[in-house]
Design brief:
The chain is α/β, with parallel strands linked by helices. The chain is built from 9 helices and 11 strands.
């Protein structure tokens, strides 16, 4: 009886201990391994193709354009347009009188395009072998006009007044296209009875200087260093139009100047050179030149 009583508590303890162990044990839920993913190779990126509004970039380069001084403002505008259409290209201008430019070309100065204010200097570049004869094209025309300072110290009212003794007149040099055109005007005027037989001699007696280009004539008149001068109508457009007065020269006495342009045959970048010529001759180029007072070639 005593042995039976002592066994029972021991049994109950063992049973309770077993139950506790069973309650504390946890079943780990097996986790599924992540599904294998197939490695996707990176998709190569492609550079965007140029569109009509996004010109294809080009290697950086300079395009050298020799142009008559009277083209300064107009060609500066064309240069900016050309650079916008040809990223990486910088248009470098050399503005001077056409005879100076032709001389530099004949002496071997590197250039890509030549725009002259007359055919004579273009022919000089052709004769030197730098331009192929027949590739030159007329791109604009121009005409002459008499100008005087805004305060008009000589009191000029008509062409006849240029021959009044004491009037200070400036011309461009004979070698410069505008200089020769000015002398041609006087030759025609000598045969015009309305101006009088002594008009030519009277004007020549009043010439105080012969300038190296048409811009020098314009500046002297604007500064009041001369009472009158002869320039192109294109020289007194834009801001310049408000700095001088003008006396028009009638068609019978005027000269319509012809401006030819061509790419040089030894240009190191002939395609770009021709592209600039094409822009000048294009409707957009002609419209811009007309805005600056030139007579379009179209």
């Amino acid at each position: 009886m005593l042995a039976r009583l002592s066994f029972r508590p021991l049994f109950l303890r063992l049973l309770l201990f077993s139950l506790l162990l069973a309650g504390c044990g946890t079943q780990a839920t097996p986790t599924q391994p992540p599904a294998p993913t197939s490695a996707q190779p990176p998709v190569p990126t492609q550079a965007p193709k140029p569109t009509a509004t996004q010109p294809a970039p080009q290697p950086a380069s300079d395009l050298t354009v020799f142009a008559a001084a009277s083209l300064t403002e107009a060609f500066a505008g064309l240069g900016k347009q050309f650079e916008a259409e040809h990223p990486g290209v910088t248009v470098v201008f050399n503005f001077a009188s056409s005879n100076q430019l032709a001389q530099q070309i004949n002496q071997g100065a590197p250039a890509d395009v030549f725009a002259s204010a007359n055919r004579t200097q273009m022919q000089a570049a052709i004769d030197a072998g730098r331009i192929v004869s027949g590739t030159q094209q007329t791109f604009v025309r121009n005409r002459l006009v008499v100008i005087y300072p805004l305060d008009n110290p000589a009191g000029l009212r008509a062409l006849q007044d240029l021959a009044t003794p004491g009037v200070k007149v400036v011309f461009a040099a004979r070698e410069v296209p505008i200089g020769q055109y000015s002398l041609d005007f006087l030759d025609k005027a000598a045969d015009d009875a309305s101006l009088g037989g002594s008009f030519k001699e009277g004007v020549l007696a009043n010439v105080v200087s012969y300038e190296e280009n048409v811009r020098a004539v314009l500046i002297k008149v604007v500064l009041g260093e001369a009472d009158a001068g002869i320039v192109y109508t294109s020289d007194i457009t834009g801001d310049n139009a408000n700095q001088v007065g003008r006396i028009d020269i009638p068609d019978t006495l005027n000269t319509i100047a012809t401006y030819p342009i061509a790419a040089l045959s030894d240009s190191e970048q002939p395609q770009l050179a021709q592209a600039f010529v094409d822009l000048v001759l294009s409707p957009a180029g002609q419209d811009l030149l007309e805005q600056y007072g030139f007579i379009p070639a179209k």
